[in-house]
Amino acid sequence: MKFWLIFLCSVSGHDTAKILATVFTPSYSHQITFRPLWIELSKRGHQVTLLTTDPMKDPTLSNIREIDLSGSYGIMEKYGASEALTNQTDKLKAIKTYLGALSKTADWQLGHPDVQKIVRNPDEKFDLIITEIVYPTHMGFVDRFKVPFIGVASFNQERSHRRLGNMVHPIIFPDGSLPMLPPLTFMERLLSVFHTVFMWWYSDFVLYPEQTAVARKHLGEDIRNLEEIEADMSFLFESLNPAITKVRPIGPNTIVISGMHLKEPKPLPKELEQYMDNAKEGVIYFSLGTNVKAYLLNDNIKRALLETFAELPYKVLWKYEGSAIENLPKNVKIMKWIPQQDLLGHPNVKLFMTQCGLQSLEEAVVNHVPMVAIPFMPEQKRNAKILNEKGIGLSLDNRNMTKAALKMTILEVINNPKFKKNTIELANLSKDVEKPGVEKAVWWTEYCLRNKGAKHLKSPAADIPLYQLLLLDVLATVIAVLLVIVIIAFLIIKICVRILRYLLRFICGKDTKIKRKTH
């Protein structure tokens, strides 16, 4: 608290601005990641209009005007997004279903009456737009209000790195939708290259044209192609922790802000606190996040979980959105909502069973809680590999998870002290940063406001065609020149050989004639 008072006082007297902030993704973890930024900007006098699926509804934040887009969850459910993510029997169909649900949600959000009031009001002006770029549709606001913009993301965005001229390499930095970490095997390298080419094609020729049409439908026909707008991004804020995720070379307009959503644990609700305090044997906390619904798990997984929990000498607290579970073991308590960060800070938490979203992973690490990961989505599977690599937990495949494997894994992580030790070491490394994430994000946001963008920080690589960036034209020229040299050399040698043969025939023929005359 003292730090923030000093920090806020030191920057008093700055110009205030009107900021439009939009977070598209209907996922609580995506929404809370950047809440501290909106709050701090509002405390510094900026007027923030926030489009969010999870409004804070805090009357003390008088400088924040929230547009409630919580109906997005219903749209995602209507088009089968949760079912597709939870039970991926047909992966291609699941991806298609999920992408279709995202598109329908984007269309619904931009057409929302409260959003349209802002869009159609000629007196509505903004100085800056901050928008989540995980899905591109909201970038259309940039052209509608014709102001600089900052893109934000809660995990690596290869597409945006390419637009900004940062290094993009399918072997060193596999696409975030692939469950791979370097060093890659030959087959992984092959898959990563083909996947990267496909994703570039898909984003440039399918996703962006489709979402450009959605943006034009609701924001105006003069909206440029979204890939053009993305290329004008002043800054990219990525909520990543370099101690946990793989580092990459980036330009000065890409800002890594680690742990912005992390906070000191607060007291738990009274009933939950009593439950935790009385659990002297320890508690296993189990949550699959927002997007994967526990009640949609298939019967085999549910059975393995319940039978395993019943045999454990610990209490199990399960975030479960469905109705009551039949034959629930006595040591298992289900709750529809749990204050995760506060719970993980309780000393009686022995283990966190998680889907391994990046924010959940960070929250467990800073609270020194080892993990068992049961990932469902590709980026979660990648995070699970990080978890294994760092030695802070173990992971299981949800497709063939057995009771025996689950029980053995849980007991191994709880009873082997190396997992706890590695988690503490990684937490210390994670906290050792040059400045808090919120302070860093606010400073660069106001830098963008002061300078009306940051085009001067853009890498020249962003404007160079791919064939030039990869030196394909230079390599082609060198190869062509070498080929010409080889051909010329070959022809010269061939001519020389012919001349030599001719001379040899001539000389040999002359010698033969002389010998005949002699005889």
Q: What key phrases describe this protein's structure?
A:
Rossmann fold; about 525 residues; seven-stranded parallel sheet; 2 domains; six-stranded parallel sheet; 21 helices; disordered N terminus
Quick overview:
This protein is of the alpha/beta class.
Largest sheet: 7 strands, parallel
Portion in helices: 40-55%
* Mean of pLDDT: 91
| Rg result | 30 Å
Q: Give the structural class.
A: alpha/beta
3D structure, described in words:
The longest helix is centred in the C-terminal third of the chain and has 47 residues, at about 470-519. Strands 3-2-1-4-5-6-7 form a seven-stranded parallel beta sheet, sandwiched between helices. A six-stranded parallel beta sheet has the order 10-9-8-11-12-13, sandwiched between helices. It has 21 helices and 13 strands. The chain is of the alpha/beta class. It folds into two domains: about 15-70 and about 110-260 and about 435-470, Rossmann fold (3-Layer(aba) Sandwich); about 270-430, Glycogen Phosphorylase B (Rossmann fold, 3-Layer(aba) Sandwich). The chain is about 50% helix and about 10% strand.
Please render the helix and strand layout as text.
Layout: H1 2-10, E1 18-22, H2 28-33, H3 35-43, E2 47-52, E3 64-68, H4 72-78, H5 81-86, H6 91-111, H7 113-120, E4 128-132, H8 140-145, E5 149-153, H9 158-164, H10 186-219, H11 226-231, E6 235-238, E7 254-256, H12 270-278, E8 283-287, H13 299-310, E9 315-319, E10 332-335, H14 340-344, E11 349-354, H15 358-366, E12 371-373, H16 378-390, E13 393-395, H17 403-415, H18 417-431, H19 437-450, H20 466-469, H21 472-518
Parallel strand pairs: 1-2, 1-4, 2-3, 4-5, 5-6, 6-7, 8-9, 8-11, 9-10, 11-12, 12-13
Helix pairs in contact: 4-6, 6-10, 13-17
